[in-house]
Predict the 3D structure of the following.
Amino acid sequence: MNVTLSEFLASSNERVDKVLDSLVPAANVEPRRLHQAIRWSMFAGGKRIRPCIVYAAGETFGADAEFLDRTAAGIEMIHTFSLIHDDLPAMDDDDLRRGRETCHKKFDEATAILAGDALHVMAFQTIAEDSSLCSDLRIRLVADIAAASGTPKGMVAGQQLDLEAEGRTIRIGELENIHSRKTGALISVSARAGAMIGAAADDELAVVQTYADRLGLLFQITDDLLDVTQETATLGKTAGKDVHASKATFPGHFGVEATREMAAKVCREAGDALKELDRETSLLEEIAEMILERSR
C-alpha cells in the first residue's frame, strides 16, 4: 500500500462526498424542505466507513475508483436513510446524531420519513444508472445490496428483531443474529460489492464474505462498547441510549471486559480470513484494526 490508512480514508471520504453532492438534489430545488432535510443528514460529517470499505475492497482486486464511486455513494445513501428512520420517535427516538439535531428534530417527523424514503430509492437509481459498469454487474449489485438492506436477512429485518428484543433476556445466538442483519449486512455487502466490481473470482468472493461478516460483527461490538464507555460529546449521539432503552447488547450480555476480548478475537478472525487471498490485503486488515480501536 502506497498510502497510509488515514490518507486513504481521507481521500475516500472526499471522493464519495463529491459524488454524493453531485447526485443529491441541491437545497434550493423543489421541494426545498425535503432536499434540505436530505442534505442535513447526508452531509453531517459521518465517518463514511461503508464507502471506504467499497473502495478498499475494490482496490484490493484492482478496480479503479471511478468504477466504485456510484456503488459507494449508493450504499452510503442507504446507511443515511437507515439512520434517519432509526432516530424517529417510533424507533429509537433520539434527538442527536453526528453531533447535531436529528433530521426529525431539525425539520419534522413527516419530512424525515420522506427524506429516508427518498434516499433509499435514490440509492438503487444511482447504481442502476452507473454506465461505467456492465448491465449484468449492475443487476447483481442491486440484488445483493437490496437483500442486505431489507428482509429476511438484511438491515430492516435486523431493526425489527432489535425492537422485539428490547427489555428481554436473549441468548447469544439471537444477539448475533440481530446484529448480523441490523449492522453487519450493509458492512458485509460493501466489501462484497467492491470485490465484485474488481472482478473477484467466486472463491475470492467467498473469502471476502467471511472477512466482511466478521467486520460487520466487529463494528457492532465496538459500537455497543462505545455506548457504555464514551461521552455524548465524543460519540456525537446520545451515550447510554442502549442501556436506557433496555437494548440487547454485547456488554449487557457479557460485561465490558469480556466484550473487549470478544472484539479483539473477531478482529483477528477477520484478518485471518484474508490470508486465504493471494492479494495485497493490508488495507482491509488495517480497516479491521481501525474499527477495533475506534473511539466514536
User: Anything to note?
Assistant: The first strand starts at residue 96 and ends at 97. The radius of gyration is 18 Å. The chain has one domain: 3-293.
